[in-house]
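job 3f2a | input accepted
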Amino acid sequence: MTTAIEMESLIADNQQLRAELQDLLQQAHINQSIIERHQAFDLKLIGASEFRELIEVMLSTMPGVFNLETVTLSLIDGDYAIQRILRDLQIGINEFPRLLFQKQPLAFIDEDGPLAAEKPRLGEFVPALHGPMFPAYQPVSVAILPLVRQHRLLGYLALGSAHRERFTRSLATDFIQRLATVAAICLENVINNERLKHIGLTDPLTGVNNRRYIEQRMQEEVARSQRDRSALSCLFIDIDHFKRVNDQYGHQSGDDVLREVAARIKKELRLSDALGRFGGEEFVVLLTHATRDDAVRIAERIRAGICSRSVMIEGSRDPLKITASIGAASLMPPDRSRPAMEVKQAMLKAADLALYQAKESGRNRVMLAATE
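job 3f2a | predicted structure (372 res):
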């Protein structure tokens, strides 16, 4: 027969079990919510098809999803190839202050010696070690996730927390490793996509932009200038007597001349300007925020740079002297009442006419024409 004391003990045990069960159910609901939130985040990562979209998800969305104070992404870009592609595709690096670039992998060492390249690093923030990844904010604890694909290190995803216990060396890294794998796959995919875009907008011979790109960019810049009421100029450049080079020395030598001229033009331009091969031996330069005086000054600099040094070509004993004629046109500012495409065509036509006048006037000179 159960005594009153035993009954009270059974009731107390039952209540405790109920409380523990309730705690377990509550924790299960919390865990389920976390899993669903993380799965939704994974889908956002996987669904990002463009570089700008992926960076927004990583650097802007991730801190809220994972309750972090900061997240940075460091890409290994020793030859500046990624940065050049982003610039040519008009993706401004300054749009993303937490997007960083490293020339080479960082050397991570702890008391046990160098760590494996693919292993996440968790622990207390050490300025000398982690400072390059957190230039604007110093967290208390960090998780550094190497992003590796096909045994190639793409960069690091760095998570920063204001809580010391958030990331410790004893913490299991299964989930973080999975996150790094997903992020690396997505990063590789979008970089490859942007490379393909870049190839489609690049002249394969000279490595500068192609006609499709320069016309598209020019229309965008005309529209921007119409909004901002700012000056915009373009240069039409043609290599003088280029047909003679092909006829006398062959098309391979002609290709060498085209590459050299493109390089000399590019050397005189600002990062905000755009250079494109328009066809054959013709190049077009788009000069942003450039007045008529700016256009003439830059064009003269380009003309002088092209003819300043002869070009050594195969099949010729003596270096070949190369010159170019340049036509310039400016919008100060563009007419707002006309469609951007119409204004763009008028500016190109004016620059082309000025180029023709430069040719008729003796070549190796700059002529300036006004747009309609």
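job 3f2a | Residues 4-47 form the longest helix (44 residues).
job 3f2a | closed
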